[in-house]
Design goal:
The protein is elongated, with a radius of gyration of 38 Å. The strands form four sheets. Strands 1, 2, 6, 7, 8, 11, 12 and 14 form an eight-stranded antiparallel β-sheet that branches. It has a four-stranded antiparallel β-sheet with strand order 3-4-10-13, with no helix packed on it. The protein folds into two domains: 26-211, Chondroitinase Ac, Chain A, domain 3 (Sandwich); 212-257. The chain contains five helices and 16 strands. The chain is of the alpha+beta class and 298 residues long. The longest helix has 52 residues, at 214-265.
């Protein structure tokens, strides 16, 4: 009984691991959840922030490679002077909507995690995904996201330590903006090899990478999906076969042992005694007494 319980437990663990692997492969990483985490983490990490000071917020070890920054500003000063922090230049004459007395800007740099959270079909990222989100700031970070009413220049974005090589029209780097709903918009870069925008969000630079047609890409995904299912099913089948074979061998051995025990019970019964941990047969008496064939003794 214990053997079968352990066997089914092993099968359950293997099946659960394979299902989690397939689910993780298909679902990927949630960019919206990451932004929400940054908001909550910055809100708890910064206490009594000084207006106009940029704070670098250290992230947990499992987010190594990402950067998180925070700044709190007065709306009046922000409208007159703008803000030039991180990789974004927010020019003057930006009016937050709805209007608030103080606002807070959270800057993000996903670093080497960028391609796990943001993807553009048929394109590759050649720069990290960076972004900024504006909130109301009654104390540190509020829950209300703000928009901008731009009455002058657009917002400028630049990417540090990125060398861009312009080639043919189909290989020229372009700017991409990611929306909160997973959408994206690709635009040409500015004359200064940067990007411009009129609203908050996440941004990067992409180049074409996959010239294969959509039908071929769908076939590749289907083949990979069926390969994963086949591999998981085959592995479980092999485990079941091994367990079934082992159980059959054990049952056959037990039947043979019982048959031998029954056969031994049909013979002459002997007394038994123990020697250590072994049970040994013992004759209780001598059945045939020795006799002398001839009385003559020399």
């Amino acid at each position: 009984m214990g053997f079968f319980f352990k066997s089914w437990y092993v099968i359950w663990v293997i099946s659960l691991s394979l299902s989690l692997f397939v689910k993780a492969y298909s679902s990927g990483y949630d960019a919206k959840a990451l932004t929400s985490f940054f908001h909550d983490y910055a809100n708890k990490s910064v206490v009594n922030p000084q207006t106009g000071t940029l704070y670098n917020i250290p992230l947990p070890s499992n987010f190594t490679g990402m950067e998180l920054r925070f700044v709190r500003l007065r709306s009046g000063s922000f409208r007159k002077r703008g803000a030039n922090f991180s990789s974004f230049y927010l020019p003057p004459k930006l009016v937050p909507e709805p209007y608030v007395k103080r606002l807070a800007i959270v800057y993000e740099n996903l670093g080497n995690w960028s391609s796990l959270y943001y993807k553009v079909p048929n394109h590759s990222l050649v720069a990290p995904v960076i972004g900024f989100t504006v909130y109301d700031s009654p104390r540190v970070l509020g829950t209300k996201k703000l928009n901008f009413s731009i009455r002058g220049e657009p917002i400028s974005i630049w990417f540090d330590h990125i060398e861009l090589q312009h080639g043919k029209n189909d290989t020229t780097p372009k700017c991409v903006k990611f929306g909160d709903d997973g959408s994206y918009v690709i635009k040409n870069m500015s004359k200064t090899n940067g990007c411009v925008t009129t609203s908050q969000g996440h941004f990067s630079i992409v180049v074409p990478s996959d010239p294969s047609p959509p039908v071929l890409r769908m076939k590749r995904k289907r083949c990979l999906k069926w390969w994963l299912i086949g591999f998981g099913g085959g592995f479980i089948g092999v485990v079941l076969l091994v367990l079934a074979t082992t159980a059959t061998v054990m049952i056959v051995k037990r039947r043979r042992l019982r048959a031998m025990e029954k056969q031994s019970e049909k013979g002459v019964s002997f007394d038994t005694f123990w020697v250590g941990r072994s049970k040994m047969p013992s004759a209780s008496m001598i059945r045939t007494q020795p006799t002398i064939e001839h009385d003559y003794v020399p």
